[in-house]
Amino acid sequence: MTQAEIKLCSLLLREHFGEIVERVGALLVRAGAQPLRMLVGDTGLSLEQVKKALCVLLQHNLATFQLPKRGGVEYEARAERVLRILRYPRYIYAAKTLYGDTGELLVEELLLNGKMTMSAAVRKVADRLTETMEDGRTMEYADVSSTFVRLADTHLVQRCPLLPNPPRVPPPAPTLVLDEKEMYTVPRLNLTPPPEDDGIYWQVNLERFHQHFRDQAIVSAVANRMDQTSSEIVRTMLRMSEVTTASGAPYTQPLSSNEIFRSLPAGYNISKQVLDQYLTLLADDPLEFVGKSGDSGGGMYTVNLHKALTSLATATLESIVEERFGSRCARIFRLLLRKKHLEQKQVEDFAMIPAKEAKEMLYRMLSENFVALQ
């Protein structure tokens, strides 16, 4: 990590968790994996203070522990996870736009507490919403529970790894296990008697939120390039694939034209023939946001996630170069992106820019590391 990132991690830990957690967390970010005795010695804190700080970091998924071969337990910071604290407001706002005030507060509580049981989160949010209601009305636990189920169904929250039945002689560090089939299975709750979900903890699935932001960017790009109907078709395809496509997959699961037609929003009145025409246009577009992978079911289509992200990133780079260096530099930059490698004479000829100007522009971009010399 760069020094600036390390400093930012330190400031975020101090702002959200206080000075003691910041001293322990910042040391782990700088020094890597450390045993408990080294943390006590290097931070100058008491053993009890270091233990409590580690508990906070582990509770919020900002650190992990491991049992190296040489023995003892070592703790390691998750620096990238610390930096994602900056995105907490965006996660909360996304939950609000998707599931209203109840979804917003559920995600907020889980982020504030790191890990919570479903019953505790539902009770807390229901009580908070009741406090804001007028005329003596109350928020029903069942309504909050149904929103929690919807968050789990769309994988925005997930179960935490569990501690299996402990052996008679506990090991130096526990081994946590997670049944992937149960990761999004919500327990049945009756919140009137004591809750029955003790030991089942939940956390926010940050990767799923990032997937949602990615999908929003793709839909917006399609709307800007083509029209609103095209973007709604792509949005439908992404929504149909959101829980069946891994976050790092290059493209979504293939969907038939018939499936897409049945899944379009109720108020979207386009015929099957018009849908097929739009899908053909999307598949033939040079940016290849949508690809065709077969002819069964009226045609099988996928969203090319990697190609779409590459196009969005390229457009962002080009706009940065144009803003900083001007349109002629942007023309050279786009040329190099397409051709990969060019000699200076080729740049002058292809970009149709005089030799002296082309040389100056290449040097300016080279001096600021926008292009490389090989």
TrEMBL record:
The keyword Nucleus applies. GO terms for cellular component: RNA polymerase III complex. The keyword Oxidoreductase does not apply. It is found in: Nucleus. Residues 196-312 form the RNA polymerase III Rpc82 C -terminal domain. InterPro entries: POLR3C_WHD, RNA_pol_III_RPC82-rel_HTH, RNA_pol_III_Rpc82_C, RPC3, WH-like_DNA-bd_sf. It comes from the Eukaryota. One of its GO terms (molecular function) is single-stranded DNA binding. Signal peptide: none annotated. Keywords: DNA-directed RNA polymerase, Nucleus, Transcription. Pfam families: HTH_9, RNA_pol_Rpc82, WHD_POLR3C. Residues 7-65 form the RNA polymerase III subunit RPC82-related helix-turn-helix domain. Residues 317-374 form the DNA-directed RNA polymerase III subunit RPC3 winged-helix domain. GO terms for biological process: DNA-templated transcription. DNA-dependent RNA polymerase catalyzes the transcription of DNA into RNA using the four ribonucleoside triphosphates as substrates. Specific core component of RNA polymerase III which synthesizes small RNAs, such as 5S rRNA and tRNAs. Component of the RNA polymerase III (Pol III) complex consisting of 17 subunits. Belongs to the eukaryotic RPC3/POLR3C RNA polymerase subunit family. This is DNA-directed RNA polymerase III subunit RPC3.
